[in-house]
Amino acid sequence: MTQLNESEHQAQMEDMRQYDEQMPCVGIFWYDVNDKSFFGVCKKELTPRMVEDAAEKGLPFINYPHLHRQVWAKEYFRAQAKHENTKFKGDYTQIPRGRVAWNIDKFIVLVGHWAEPIQEELTTLIEQEFSLPYFEFVYDEHWDLGHGWSGDMP
Q1: Residue 40, by phi and psi: left (phi above 0), alpha (psi -120 to 50) or beta?
Q2: What is the DSSP string of 128-154?
Q3: 100 near 107, Cβ under 8 Å?
Q4: Which one, of 15, 20, 71, 69, lies nearest residue 43 by Cα?
């Protein structure tokens, strides 16, 4: 049996890296209406093993582990401390946003009704950003402009 030496092994690994693709992801995003692009994207790769493990534990819903309001506040204060201009200012619920999650046997994208007129455009952005082979939009008032985490509302 022949074995690769260290430099041959490194060359082989480097060659294989060009074929490495991002796994499908769960995560959150905001949509910039002017730029027609996402910002503040946070995501986590999801593997088939993670889905199987969750199902075995009776947890068929897999979500990104942070809330929009948490990410927004962190980015706002980071920009303030560095005296940088930022999109993370004002009320985070006034900017179109969404969440990508896994639910039983499919990816779902939770959005508000703001997304209905641009669903085709959003589909392309979401497929690319989160590497999703297939997903369904789920519309919910929580994701509508002006709605947010219940603890934030007066």
Answers
A1: left
A2: HHHT-S-EEEEE-GGGSTT---GGG--
A3: yes
A4: 71
Residue 108 and residue 61 in contact, taking contact as beta carbons nearer than 8 Å: no
Which region holds residue 88: left if phi is over 0, alpha if psi is between -120 and 50, else beta? beta
Percent helix, strand, coil in the chain (nearest 5)? 40, 25, 35
2 or 50, which is more confident: 50
Q: What is the pLDDT of residues 80-123, one digit of tens each?
A: 999 999 999 999 999 999 999 999 889 999 999 999 999 999 99
Q: Measure the CA–CA gap between 56 and 103, rounded to whole angstroms.
A: 14
Global pTM?
Answer: 0.83
